[in-house]
Amino acid sequence: MRPGPIRFGPLTAYRRCPRRGRGKWFGFAIDVIAPVLALSTRSRFAGTEHLPRSGGVLVASNHLSNADAIMVTAFSLLGGRVPRFFAKAGLWKVPVVRAVMESGRHIKVHRGRASALDAYRDTVSAVREGECVVVFPEGTFTDREDGWPMKAKTGVARIALTTGTPVVPLACWGTRELLPPDGRLPRVFPRRRVEVLAGPVVDLSDLVTDKPSATQLREATDRIMAAVTALLTEVRGGTPTRNSEGIIGDHE
Prior knowledge:
By secondary structure, the protein is α/β, with parallel strands linked by helices. It has 8 helices and 10 strands. The protein has helices spanning about 10-15, 25-40, 65-80, 95-105, 115-130, 155-165, 175-180, 215-235, and strands at about 5, 40-45, 55-60, 85-90, 105-110, 130-135, 165-175, 190-200, 240-245, 245-250. Helix 4 links the parallel strand 4 (about 85-90) and strand 5 (about 105-110). It starts with 5 loop residues before the first strand and ends with a strand. Residues about 250 have low confidence and may be disordered.
């Protein structure tokens, strides 16, 4: 039986979340945002027991909104981990945001093939050092109007297969209503309901290798996204349909 969901309230946010390892300014940002999140949403988190309490781990989530990072941060903290994220290099040019990015030891991503390789190496180093790294395999917000995931990139699979790092699938739902993809400020009234659900580690043991082939990378990616989609189905209802290009529709 799945443990009951955690309802995100102010006391939960402060009593259950780890404080060590946040960094000064990332920790400050969390302390500012957490009470606002607790008061402005009806958030529920389930599956925190699937997040290992120590050691390197990759958390793979669907991506609907900029609010996803906030919700996955809350989920990770409730699961006893401080998350690290990929972030566009431009954020390091904004003074206050740069302090948060550097303090939280997030992974800088520039455009271009060389930068992607650097980000890959930085992520490998992070998980080998025991960090919890959050990845949105789609690479950007889904372009599906119905909110189902689109075809994912193979980066998270490459990291998982070459390092043997466990991948925890996670689904967010309700974040698009909280903060639309083109929105700058969250919609806090009325309070939006947001659900975050994680599942067991995806079994990739038969694919782990130092040099995965394109076929192995796609198979691993498909398994990860199948797990994410199954969780999303559980949270939102409906049934996605697929073709060779990914998830393309929704049938109630």
